[in-house]
Amino acid sequence: MIEMIPFTRFGSLSNSYMATADIANVQQMFFYYPEFSYTSLELAEELKGIMTLGELFTIAEVFSQPAFNYTGSILVVSGDKDFVVCGGNCYQSVNGSANLLEPARMLFPAASKFSTYIPARVGHAINAHFGAPDTYRVIEEWIGS
Fold first, then answer.
1. What's the pTM?
2. Domain containing 57: what range?
3. For a tag on the chain, would you pick the N or C end, based on fewer CB atoms within 10 A?
4. CA quadruple 87, 89, 93, 99: dihedral positive or negative?
């Protein structure tokens, strides 16, 4: 809860707001050690934001409504060590799927192309990892294909 965090930037927000407690929580949630610079982690801690309980409890609703009319291309990208999306292991299988990203295909049943990419040794904050340039190269190649 927000009032338990010694961080004056959030002022006197009510306990319906949440944030990571400290830099260790930020690292666990968003970064995969040692694949980032400590400066990036410090910046993430300094700039961290908040989330309401309502956001947390309704996020699943967004992912439960298929986009039946979307016929474009889809590329789902998440680092293999993404704690937020995959609990730290995006290669887990769900109901026989190849990985935890593959079930997103059900949300885009009319997509002309559906692909997943799981960059190795990368957490949720893809941009902050040393592997970001390689990840973006793959994304750009996918866009160009």
1. 0.87
2. 2-144
3. C
4. positive
